[in-house]
Design a protein that fits this description.
The chain is about 70% helix and about 0% strand. By secondary structure, the chain is mainly alpha-helical.
Length: about 475
Protein backbone atom coordinates (compact mmCIF):
# COMPACT_ATOMS: atom_id res chain seq x y z
CA UNK A 1 0.00 0.00 0.00
CA UNK A 2 1.07 3.60 -0.55
CA UNK A 3 0.72 4.08 3.19
CA UNK A 4 4.24 2.73 3.77
CA UNK A 5 5.80 5.07 1.21
CA UNK A 6 4.66 8.35 2.73
CA UNK A 7 5.05 10.19 5.95
CA UNK A 8 1.89 10.14 8.04
CA UNK A 9 0.28 13.47 8.90
CA UNK A 10 -2.37 14.82 11.29
CA UNK A 11 -5.27 17.23 11.06
CA UNK A 12 -4.51 20.30 13.17
CA UNK A 13 -6.44 21.54 16.21
CA UNK A 14 -7.72 24.75 14.58
CA UNK A 15 -11.06 25.21 16.39
CA UNK A 16 -11.22 27.42 19.49
CA UNK A 17 -14.32 28.30 21.51
CA UNK A 18 -15.55 30.97 19.06
CA UNK A 19 -15.19 28.58 16.12
CA UNK A 20 -16.89 25.82 18.14
CA UNK A 21 -19.88 28.02 19.02
CA UNK A 22 -20.05 29.18 15.39
CA UNK A 23 -20.01 25.57 14.14
CA UNK A 24 -22.88 24.55 16.44
CA UNK A 25 -25.03 27.68 16.25
CA UNK A 26 -24.13 28.44 12.63
CA UNK A 27 -25.14 24.95 11.51
CA UNK A 28 -28.40 24.98 13.49
CA UNK A 29 -29.46 28.44 12.31
CA UNK A 30 -29.85 27.65 8.65
CA UNK A 31 -32.74 26.74 6.47
CA UNK A 32 -34.93 25.29 9.23
CA UNK A 33 -36.22 28.47 10.87
CA UNK A 34 -37.04 29.87 7.42
CA UNK A 35 -38.56 26.66 5.97
CA UNK A 36 -39.96 24.53 8.80
CA UNK A 37 -42.40 26.82 10.70
CA UNK A 38 -45.19 26.32 8.16
CA UNK A 39 -44.72 22.53 8.28
CA UNK A 40 -44.63 22.43 12.10
CA UNK A 41 -47.85 24.46 12.21
CA UNK A 42 -49.59 22.40 9.53
CA UNK A 43 -48.75 19.11 11.29
CA UNK A 44 -49.63 20.21 14.85
CA UNK A 45 -52.57 22.41 13.83
CA UNK A 46 -52.40 25.42 16.20
CA UNK A 47 -50.04 28.34 16.91
CA UNK A 48 -49.79 27.65 20.66
CA UNK A 49 -48.93 23.99 20.15
CA UNK A 50 -46.37 24.89 17.48
CA UNK A 51 -44.51 27.12 19.97
CA UNK A 52 -44.48 24.22 22.46
CA UNK A 53 -43.00 21.96 19.74
CA UNK A 54 -40.27 24.53 19.10
CA UNK A 55 -39.44 24.85 22.82
CA UNK A 56 -39.39 21.07 23.35
CA UNK A 57 -37.24 20.61 20.22
CA UNK A 58 -34.69 22.99 21.72
CA UNK A 59 -34.81 21.11 25.03
CA UNK A 60 -34.26 17.73 23.32
CA UNK A 61 -31.34 19.17 21.32
CA UNK A 62 -29.80 20.62 24.49
CA UNK A 63 -30.10 17.38 26.47
CA UNK A 64 -28.77 15.38 23.52
CA UNK A 65 -25.80 17.73 23.07
CA UNK A 66 -24.91 17.57 26.78
CA UNK A 67 -24.99 13.77 26.64
CA UNK A 68 -22.80 13.74 23.54
CA UNK A 69 -20.41 16.15 25.28
CA UNK A 70 -19.77 13.53 27.97
CA UNK A 71 -19.19 10.88 25.29
CA UNK A 72 -16.77 13.25 23.55
CA UNK A 73 -14.69 13.64 26.71
CA UNK A 74 -14.55 9.85 27.27
CA UNK A 75 -13.82 8.86 23.64
CA UNK A 76 -11.66 11.73 22.38
CA UNK A 77 -11.82 10.83 18.70
CA UNK A 78 -13.58 12.49 15.78
CA UNK A 79 -16.42 10.68 14.02
CA UNK A 80 -19.42 11.20 16.32
CA UNK A 81 -21.95 8.36 16.39
CA UNK A 82 -19.78 6.08 14.26
CA UNK A 83 -16.73 6.16 16.53
CA UNK A 84 -18.80 5.90 19.74
CA UNK A 85 -20.75 2.85 18.55
CA UNK A 86 -17.52 1.32 17.20
CA UNK A 87 -15.69 1.69 20.54
CA UNK A 88 -18.67 0.56 22.68
CA UNK A 89 -20.47 -2.07 20.55
CA UNK A 90 -17.86 -3.13 17.99
CA UNK A 91 -17.34 -3.30 14.22
CA UNK A 92 -20.64 -4.78 13.02
CA UNK A 93 -23.15 -2.18 14.34
CA UNK A 94 -20.67 0.65 13.69
CA UNK A 95 -20.57 -0.23 10.00
CA UNK A 96 -24.32 0.36 9.67
CA UNK A 97 -23.83 3.83 11.15
CA UNK A 98 -21.11 4.62 8.61
CA UNK A 99 -23.09 3.07 5.74
CA UNK A 100 -26.29 4.98 6.56
CA UNK A 101 -24.72 8.30 7.54
CA UNK A 102 -22.38 8.41 4.53
CA UNK A 103 -24.97 7.38 1.93
CA UNK A 104 -28.18 8.84 3.39
CA UNK A 105 -28.15 11.00 6.51
CA UNK A 106 -25.32 13.47 5.81
CA UNK A 107 -25.90 13.76 2.03
CA UNK A 108 -29.65 14.17 2.61
CA UNK A 109 -28.99 16.92 5.13
CA UNK A 110 -26.61 18.70 2.75
CA UNK A 111 -29.08 18.34 -0.14
CA UNK A 112 -32.02 19.68 1.90
CA UNK A 113 -30.07 22.72 3.11
CA UNK A 114 -28.77 23.47 -0.39
CA UNK A 115 -32.34 23.27 -1.73
CA UNK A 116 -33.59 25.74 0.85
CA UNK A 117 -30.65 28.05 0.05
CA UNK A 118 -31.56 27.85 -3.62
CA UNK A 119 -35.28 28.53 -3.01
CA UNK A 120 -34.47 31.77 -1.21
CA UNK A 121 -31.58 32.78 -3.48
CA UNK A 122 -33.73 32.71 -6.63
CA UNK A 123 -36.97 33.96 -4.98
CA UNK A 124 -36.30 37.69 -5.70
CA UNK A 125 -36.14 36.89 -9.44
CA UNK A 126 -39.53 35.10 -9.43
CA UNK A 127 -41.66 37.31 -7.20
CA UNK A 128 -44.94 36.60 -9.04
CA UNK A 129 -44.53 32.86 -9.52
CA UNK A 130 -42.70 29.80 -8.25
CA UNK A 131 -39.15 29.42 -9.60
CA UNK A 132 -38.54 26.55 -12.08
CA UNK A 133 -37.23 23.44 -10.36
CA UNK A 134 -34.30 23.23 -12.77
CA UNK A 135 -33.13 26.70 -11.72
CA UNK A 136 -33.50 25.81 -8.03
CA UNK A 137 -31.54 22.57 -8.45
CA UNK A 138 -28.77 24.34 -10.39
CA UNK A 139 -28.44 26.98 -7.65
CA UNK A 140 -28.29 24.19 -5.05
CA UNK A 141 -25.54 22.43 -7.01
CA UNK A 142 -23.56 25.69 -7.20
CA UNK A 143 -23.84 26.19 -3.42
CA UNK A 144 -22.59 22.67 -2.69
CA UNK A 145 -19.64 23.12 -5.05
CA UNK A 146 -18.60 26.46 -3.51
CA UNK A 147 -18.78 25.08 0.03
CA UNK A 148 -16.88 21.96 -1.03
CA UNK A 149 -14.05 24.04 -2.53
CA UNK A 150 -13.76 26.20 0.59
CA UNK A 151 -13.57 23.15 2.87
CA UNK A 152 -11.08 21.35 0.62
CA UNK A 153 -8.78 24.37 0.42
CA UNK A 154 -8.41 25.34 4.08
CA UNK A 155 -9.90 24.59 7.50
CA UNK A 156 -9.42 28.19 8.65
CA UNK A 157 -11.19 29.49 5.54
CA UNK A 158 -14.16 27.19 6.27
CA UNK A 159 -14.28 28.43 9.87
CA UNK A 160 -14.03 32.09 8.84
CA UNK A 161 -17.01 31.54 6.55
CA UNK A 162 -18.84 29.97 9.50
CA UNK A 163 -18.17 32.90 11.86
CA UNK A 164 -18.99 35.61 9.28
CA UNK A 165 -22.24 33.96 8.23
CA UNK A 166 -23.26 33.37 11.87
CA UNK A 167 -22.95 37.10 12.56
CA UNK A 168 -25.00 37.87 9.42
CA UNK A 169 -27.79 35.43 10.28
CA UNK A 170 -27.97 36.61 13.92
CA UNK A 171 -28.44 40.14 12.59
CA UNK A 172 -31.21 38.95 10.23
CA UNK A 173 -33.03 37.08 13.02
CA UNK A 174 -32.79 40.10 15.32
CA UNK A 175 -34.41 42.23 12.58
CA UNK A 176 -37.30 39.74 12.51
CA UNK A 177 -37.58 39.69 16.30
CA UNK A 178 -37.62 43.50 16.52
CA UNK A 179 -40.13 43.69 13.65
CA UNK A 180 -42.43 41.29 15.51
CA UNK A 181 -42.11 43.32 18.73
CA UNK A 182 -43.08 46.49 16.84
CA UNK A 183 -46.15 44.78 15.32
CA UNK A 184 -47.23 43.46 18.73
CA UNK A 185 -46.70 46.90 20.32
CA UNK A 186 -48.93 48.43 17.64
CA UNK A 187 -51.66 45.90 18.42
CA UNK A 188 -51.83 44.58 14.85
CA UNK A 189 -51.40 40.95 15.89
CA UNK A 190 -52.68 38.34 13.43
CA UNK A 191 -53.22 35.71 16.17
CA UNK A 192 -54.77 37.18 19.30
CA UNK A 193 -56.71 34.37 20.98
CA UNK A 194 -57.66 30.70 20.84
CA UNK A 195 -54.02 29.84 20.31
CA UNK A 196 -54.62 26.10 20.80
CA UNK A 197 -57.75 25.72 18.64
CA UNK A 198 -57.36 22.92 16.10
CA UNK A 199 -54.42 21.19 17.79
CA UNK A 200 -53.72 17.72 16.30
CA UNK A 201 -52.83 15.28 19.08
CA UNK A 202 -52.27 12.20 16.90
CA UNK A 203 -48.93 10.43 17.38
CA UNK A 204 -48.05 10.84 13.71
CA UNK A 205 -48.90 14.57 13.74
CA UNK A 206 -46.79 15.20 16.85
CA UNK A 207 -43.93 13.06 15.51
CA UNK A 208 -43.88 14.80 12.12
CA UNK A 209 -44.04 18.22 13.78
CA UNK A 210 -41.05 17.25 15.93
CA UNK A 211 -39.19 16.03 12.83
CA UNK A 212 -39.56 19.48 11.28
CA UNK A 213 -38.78 21.31 14.53
CA UNK A 214 -35.72 19.21 15.32
CA UNK A 215 -34.54 19.61 11.74
CA UNK A 216 -34.04 23.28 12.61
CA UNK A 217 -31.78 22.23 15.51
CA UNK A 218 -29.78 19.76 13.39
CA UNK A 219 -26.15 20.47 14.15
CA UNK A 220 -26.24 20.15 17.96
CA UNK A 221 -23.96 17.10 17.59
CA UNK A 222 -21.50 18.62 15.08
CA UNK A 223 -18.57 19.18 17.45
CA UNK A 224 -18.45 15.46 18.20
CA UNK A 225 -17.58 14.82 14.56
CA UNK A 226 -14.50 17.07 14.76
CA UNK A 227 -13.24 16.44 18.33
CA UNK A 228 -9.65 15.89 17.14
CA UNK A 229 -9.63 19.37 15.55
CA UNK A 230 -11.02 21.10 18.66
CA UNK A 231 -8.68 22.88 21.07
CA UNK A 232 -9.12 21.64 24.68
CA UNK A 233 -12.18 19.52 23.84
CA UNK A 234 -12.77 18.59 27.50
CA UNK A 235 -13.50 22.30 28.14
CA UNK A 236 -14.70 23.73 24.83
CA UNK A 237 -17.03 20.87 23.84
CA UNK A 238 -19.55 21.25 26.70
CA UNK A 239 -19.00 25.01 26.93
CA UNK A 240 -19.82 25.57 23.24
CA UNK A 241 -23.14 23.68 23.35
CA UNK A 242 -24.15 25.38 26.62
CA UNK A 243 -23.63 28.76 24.92
CA UNK A 244 -25.01 27.96 21.47
CA UNK A 245 -28.18 25.90 21.95
CA UNK A 246 -30.06 28.07 24.52
CA UNK A 247 -29.24 31.13 22.39
CA UNK A 248 -30.63 29.47 19.26
CA UNK A 249 -33.73 28.16 21.08
CA UNK A 250 -34.62 31.61 22.39
CA UNK A 251 -34.13 33.18 18.96
CA UNK A 252 -36.30 30.50 17.31
CA UNK A 253 -39.15 31.07 19.77
CA UNK A 254 -39.01 34.85 19.29
CA UNK A 255 -38.90 34.52 15.49
CA UNK A 256 -41.91 32.18 15.53
CA UNK A 257 -43.80 34.67 17.71
CA UNK A 258 -42.90 37.30 15.11
CA UNK A 259 -44.23 35.11 12.29
CA UNK A 260 -47.49 34.54 14.18
CA UNK A 261 -47.81 38.23 15.00
CA UNK A 262 -47.57 39.17 11.32
CA UNK A 263 -49.36 36.26 9.61
CA UNK A 264 -52.50 34.28 10.29
CA UNK A 265 -52.01 30.51 10.65
CA UNK A 266 -53.56 30.03 7.20
CA UNK A 267 -51.14 32.52 5.62
CA UNK A 268 -48.19 30.93 7.36
CA UNK A 269 -49.11 27.38 6.32
CA UNK A 270 -49.70 28.38 2.68
CA UNK A 271 -46.41 30.24 2.34
CA UNK A 272 -43.63 28.59 0.34
CA UNK A 273 -41.03 30.98 1.77
CA UNK A 274 -42.26 32.17 5.15
CA UNK A 275 -39.42 34.66 5.70
CA UNK A 276 -40.18 36.35 2.36
CA UNK A 277 -43.89 36.55 3.19
CA UNK A 278 -42.96 38.10 6.56
CA UNK A 279 -40.61 40.54 4.82
CA UNK A 280 -43.24 41.64 2.29
CA UNK A 281 -45.73 42.33 5.08
CA UNK A 282 -43.36 44.13 7.46
CA UNK A 283 -40.66 45.65 5.25
CA UNK A 284 -42.81 46.37 2.21
CA UNK A 285 -40.69 47.06 -0.87
CA UNK A 286 -37.63 45.92 1.08
CA UNK A 287 -39.11 42.44 1.61
CA UNK A 288 -36.62 40.94 -0.85
CA UNK A 289 -33.91 41.54 1.78
CA UNK A 290 -35.32 38.61 3.77
CA UNK A 291 -34.75 36.31 0.80
CA UNK A 292 -31.09 37.27 0.80
CA UNK A 293 -30.85 36.91 4.60
CA UNK A 294 -32.45 33.45 4.51
CA UNK A 295 -30.18 32.36 1.65
CA UNK A 296 -27.06 33.54 3.53
CA UNK A 297 -28.28 31.74 6.65
CA UNK A 298 -28.78 28.49 4.76
CA UNK A 299 -25.36 28.85 3.14
CA UNK A 300 -23.66 29.14 6.54
CA UNK A 301 -25.52 26.08 7.77
CA UNK A 302 -24.55 24.19 4.61
CA UNK A 303 -20.89 25.00 5.28
CA UNK A 304 -21.06 23.65 8.86
CA UNK A 305 -22.94 20.50 7.85
CA UNK A 306 -20.46 19.81 5.07
CA UNK A 307 -17.50 20.38 7.40
CA UNK A 308 -18.72 17.74 9.87
CA UNK A 309 -20.10 15.35 7.23
CA UNK A 310 -16.72 14.97 5.56
CA UNK A 311 -15.15 13.99 8.89
CA UNK A 312 -17.53 11.02 9.32
CA UNK A 313 -16.35 9.64 5.98
CA UNK A 314 -12.70 10.32 6.90
CA UNK A 315 -12.90 8.54 10.28
CA UNK A 316 -14.89 5.57 8.89
CA UNK A 317 -12.20 5.03 6.25
CA UNK A 318 -9.45 5.36 8.87
CA UNK A 319 -11.09 2.53 10.83
CA UNK A 320 -11.23 0.29 7.75
CA UNK A 321 -14.94 0.71 6.95
CA UNK A 322 -14.38 2.62 3.71
CA UNK A 323 -11.64 2.57 1.03
CA UNK A 324 -8.21 3.70 2.29
CA UNK A 325 -8.07 6.73 0.00
CA UNK A 326 -10.91 8.37 1.97
CA UNK A 327 -8.80 8.28 5.17
CA UNK A 328 -6.08 10.48 3.70
CA UNK A 329 -5.44 14.22 4.01
CA UNK A 330 -3.78 16.72 1.70
CA UNK A 331 -0.05 16.89 2.46
CA UNK A 332 0.05 20.71 2.49
CA UNK A 333 -3.46 21.93 3.30
CA UNK A 334 -4.10 19.21 5.95
CA UNK A 335 -7.75 18.84 4.92
CA UNK A 336 -9.41 15.42 4.36
CA UNK A 337 -9.96 16.27 0.70
CA UNK A 338 -10.79 12.76 -0.64
CA UNK A 339 -13.53 12.33 1.99
CA UNK A 340 -14.88 15.80 1.20
CA UNK A 341 -14.93 15.04 -2.54
CA UNK A 342 -16.78 11.78 -1.87
CA UNK A 343 -19.32 13.58 0.35
CA UNK A 344 -19.84 16.16 -2.41
CA UNK A 345 -20.51 13.49 -5.03
CA UNK A 346 -23.06 11.58 -2.93
CA UNK A 347 -24.82 14.83 -1.92
CA UNK A 348 -25.21 15.83 -5.57
CA UNK A 349 -26.74 12.42 -6.35
CA UNK A 350 -29.23 12.74 -3.47
CA UNK A 351 -30.11 16.25 -4.64
CA UNK A 352 -31.31 15.13 -8.09
CA UNK A 353 -34.65 13.52 -7.08
CA UNK A 354 -35.11 15.13 -3.65
CA UNK A 355 -37.58 17.69 -2.32
CA UNK A 356 -37.20 19.52 1.00
CA UNK A 357 -40.03 18.01 3.06
CA UNK A 358 -39.46 14.36 2.11
CA UNK A 359 -35.70 14.72 2.64
CA UNK A 360 -36.26 16.08 6.17
CA UNK A 361 -38.59 13.22 7.16
CA UNK A 362 -36.24 10.64 5.66
CA UNK A 363 -33.23 12.18 7.41
CA UNK A 364 -34.96 12.44 10.79
CA UNK A 365 -36.22 8.86 10.88
CA UNK A 366 -32.80 7.33 10.20
CA UNK A 367 -30.79 9.81 12.28
CA UNK A 368 -32.78 9.46 15.50
CA UNK A 369 -32.62 5.66 15.26
CA UNK A 370 -28.82 5.88 15.55
CA UNK A 371 -28.86 8.69 18.12
CA UNK A 372 -30.80 6.32 20.41
CA UNK A 373 -28.19 3.57 19.94
CA UNK A 374 -25.35 6.02 20.64
CA UNK A 375 -26.97 7.28 23.85
CA UNK A 376 -27.63 3.71 25.01
CA UNK A 377 -23.85 3.33 24.74
CA UNK A 378 -23.42 6.27 27.12
CA UNK A 379 -25.77 4.55 29.59
CA UNK A 380 -23.66 1.39 29.29
CA UNK A 381 -20.46 3.32 30.07
CA UNK A 382 -22.09 5.08 33.03
CA UNK A 383 -23.33 1.83 34.56
CA UNK A 384 -20.61 -0.67 33.61
CA UNK A 385 -17.51 1.55 33.42
CA UNK A 386 -17.92 4.42 35.87
CA UNK A 387 -14.15 4.40 36.49
CA UNK A 388 -13.33 5.77 33.00
CA UNK A 389 -11.86 9.30 33.19
CA UNK A 390 -14.45 11.85 32.09
CA UNK A 391 -13.80 15.57 32.68
CA UNK A 392 -17.50 16.30 32.12
CA UNK A 393 -20.53 14.35 33.37
CA UNK A 394 -24.29 14.61 32.94
CA UNK A 395 -26.89 13.06 35.28
CA UNK A 396 -27.98 9.65 33.99
CA UNK A 397 -31.58 10.85 33.68
CA UNK A 398 -30.60 13.19 30.79
CA UNK A 399 -29.56 10.51 28.24
CA UNK A 400 -32.55 8.41 29.37
CA UNK A 401 -34.93 11.26 28.50
CA UNK A 402 -33.31 11.75 25.09
CA UNK A 403 -33.50 8.01 24.36
CA UNK A 404 -37.23 8.07 25.18
CA UNK A 405 -37.66 11.05 22.83
CA UNK A 406 -35.67 9.25 20.09
CA UNK A 407 -37.76 6.06 20.44
CA UNK A 408 -40.92 8.16 20.16
CA UNK A 409 -39.61 9.95 17.05
CA UNK A 410 -38.75 6.65 15.37
CA UNK A 411 -41.88 4.69 16.30
CA UNK A 412 -44.72 7.25 16.56
CA UNK A 413 -45.13 8.01 12.84
CA UNK A 414 -44.84 4.30 11.95
CA UNK A 415 -47.43 3.15 14.51
CA UNK A 416 -49.92 5.94 13.91
CA UNK A 417 -49.61 6.16 10.13
CA UNK A 418 -47.68 3.22 8.64
CA UNK A 419 -46.09 4.00 5.28
CA UNK A 420 -44.13 1.80 2.90
CA UNK A 421 -41.31 4.38 2.84
CA UNK A 422 -40.27 3.42 6.39
CA UNK A 423 -39.90 -0.19 5.28
CA UNK A 424 -37.72 0.94 2.38
CA UNK A 425 -35.50 2.92 4.76
CA UNK A 426 -35.11 -0.05 7.11
CA UNK A 427 -34.35 -2.40 4.21
CA UNK A 428 -31.73 0.03 2.92
CA UNK A 429 -29.99 0.20 6.32
CA UNK A 430 -29.81 -3.59 6.59
CA UNK A 431 -28.69 -3.94 2.97
CA UNK A 432 -25.33 -2.83 4.36
CA UNK A 433 -24.80 -6.50 5.27
CA UNK A 434 -24.14 -7.16 1.58
CA UNK A 435 -21.18 -4.80 1.78
CA UNK A 436 -19.99 -5.61 5.32
CA UNK A 437 -19.65 -9.39 5.06
CA UNK A 438 -17.40 -9.63 1.98
CA UNK A 439 -15.46 -6.35 2.15
CA UNK A 440 -15.15 -5.56 5.89
CA UNK A 441 -15.41 -8.93 7.69
CA UNK A 442 -13.60 -11.11 5.14
CA UNK A 443 -11.53 -8.19 3.78
CA UNK A 444 -11.99 -9.13 0.15
CA UNK A 445 -9.98 -6.34 -1.41
CA UNK A 446 -9.08 -6.85 -5.08
CA UNK A 447 -5.68 -5.67 -6.30
CA UNK A 448 -7.40 -3.17 -8.59
CA UNK A 449 -8.49 -1.16 -5.53
CA UNK A 450 -4.87 -0.85 -4.38
CA UNK A 451 -3.81 0.44 -7.81
CA UNK A 452 -6.67 2.95 -7.83
CA UNK A 453 -5.69 4.09 -4.30
CA UNK A 454 -2.07 4.69 -5.32
CA UNK A 455 -3.16 6.60 -8.45
CA UNK A 456 -5.61 8.81 -6.52
CA UNK A 457 -3.08 9.37 -3.75
CA UNK A 458 -0.58 10.79 -6.25
CA UNK A 459 -3.23 12.69 -8.22
CA UNK A 460 -4.82 14.32 -5.15
CA UNK A 461 -1.50 14.80 -3.29
CA UNK A 462 -2.74 13.09 -0.13
CA UNK A 463 -1.18 10.88 2.53
CA UNK A 464 -2.48 8.68 5.38
CA UNK A 465 -3.42 10.66 8.49
CA UNK A 466 -2.87 9.69 12.12
CA UNK A 467 -5.29 10.34 14.96
CA UNK A 468 -4.84 13.64 16.77
CA UNK A 469 -5.39 12.63 20.43
Amino acid sequence: MAETETERIQLKRELGLVSAVSLVAGTMIGSGIFMSPQFVLSYIGSPGASLIIWALSGLVAMLGALSYAELGTIIKESGGDFIYILRIYGQFPAFFVAFTFLLVVKPASIAAISLSFAEYAVAPFYQDCSPPQLIVKCAAVAAIMVVAMANILNVRLAMRIQVVFLVAKLFALMVMVIGGIVIIAQGNVAVQQNAFDGTNLGLSSIGMAFYQGLWSFAGWYNLNYVTEELKRPEVNLPRAVIIAIPMVTMLYLLVNVSYLAVMTPRELMSSNAVAVTWGNKVLGSWGWVMSIAAALSAFGSLNGTFFSGGRVCFVAAREGHMPDILSMAHVNRLTPSPALIFTTAISLLVLIPGDFQSIVNFFSFTAWFFYAITLSGLLYLKIKKPELPRPYRVPIVIPILVIIAAIFLVLAPIIDNPAIEYLYVTMFIFSGILVYVPFIHFKLCPGLLEKVTVFLQLFLEVAPADKNL
